[in-house]
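Tokens as discussed.
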């Protein structure tokens, strides 16, 4: 081959090599764009050395590290695992490496450099073995699941809590009732607000909502930790008290709830004055939540008929207050 022909061939190879590099760079750019849009991070682990290769380099950023600030290796990954999840994650990983599971998968938390928590769905599979059949490389993905977990937690919160006051809703109260009844004496306090409609009519529904929020906080502040507080909806509240009706805490709490309602509410556009009719019932052996609540409601209604703003007990007994 002549020198000129060899020179031309080298030039053609250089052009072809440059073209392949452009194609590879373009492919990596498109892949990174696609991965960045989905929160997906590709990784590969070399088992003998412990070295991690992070293909799109966002794994470190997810944990709050700058590029090349920390070594990408198996130990640094282990150190970033949330301590409550680490044992289960490593068990799942080692089960796959040992051949006890067809793949590695774990939904867990990781701790960033600044202390923030990231939820990830981690998946991987052995991709290469040595001549002795021992795994030497694992390739997998991280998917950032933080937003999904936050949404899941919000749904769980709404499923058991009133969205305005964040107190327990009816469904949660029913569950709490069954658990508390099995543990010992129990009383149900039913609170129905008096003249609450007037707040909405004169100050507006936003002010009415603020009154409910403030009252919820007052009830929470005055109640012992073992008392469950809930809102049935509208202007109706319920407390579950783990005491017998004859115990002084029941009467004291019932009247404290009434005082909390009677204390004026300071609002941005004025002051709200409302009252409450309160009924208290002792839970009986065969009672379910609705039955016990109905008797508390009957006791409350006696107050409504007799001028409102008071507390009635079922079964009735002289009130020393």
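Sequence:
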């Amino acid at each position: 081959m002549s020198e000129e022909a060899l020179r031309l061939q080298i030039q053609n190879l250089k052009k072809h090599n440059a073209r392949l590099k452009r194609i590879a760079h373009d492919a990596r750019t498109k892949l990174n764009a696609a991965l960045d849009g989905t929160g997906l991070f590709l990784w590969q682990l070399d088992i003998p050395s412990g070295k991690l290769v992070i293909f799109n380099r966002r794994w470190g950023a997810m944990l709050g590290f700058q590029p090349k600030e920390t070594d990408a290796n198996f130990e640094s990954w282990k150190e970033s695992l949330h301590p409550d999840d680490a044992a289960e994650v490593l068990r799942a990983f080692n089960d796959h490496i040992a051949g006890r599971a067809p793949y590695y998968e774990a939904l867990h938390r990781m701790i960033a450099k600044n202390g923030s928590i990231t939820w990830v769905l981690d998946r991987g599979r052995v991709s290469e073995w040595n001549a002795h059949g021992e795994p030497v490389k694992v390739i997998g993905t991280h998917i950032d699941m933080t937003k999904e977990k936050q949404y899941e937690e919000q749904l769980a919160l709404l499923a058991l809590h009133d969205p305005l006051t964040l107190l327990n809703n009816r469904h949660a109260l029913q569950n709490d009732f069954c658990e508390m009844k099995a543990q010992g004496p129990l009383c149900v306090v039913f609170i129905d607000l008096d003249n609450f409609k007037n707040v909405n009519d004169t100050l507006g529904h936003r002010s009415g909502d603020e009154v409910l929020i403030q009252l919820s906080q007052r009830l929470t502040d005055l109640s012992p930790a073992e008392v469950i507080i809930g809102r049935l909806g509208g202007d109706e509240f319920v407390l579950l008290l783990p005491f017998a009706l004859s115990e002084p805490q029941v009467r004291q709490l019932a009247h404290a709830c009434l005082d909390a309602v009677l204390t004026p509410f300071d609002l941005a556009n004025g002051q709200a004055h409302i009252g409450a009719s309160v009924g208290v019932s002792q839970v009986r052996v065969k009672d379910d939540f609705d039955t016990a609540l109905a008797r508390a409601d009957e006791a409350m209604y006696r107050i409504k008929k007799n001028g409102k703003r008071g507390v009635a007990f079922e079964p009735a007994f002289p009130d020393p207050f």
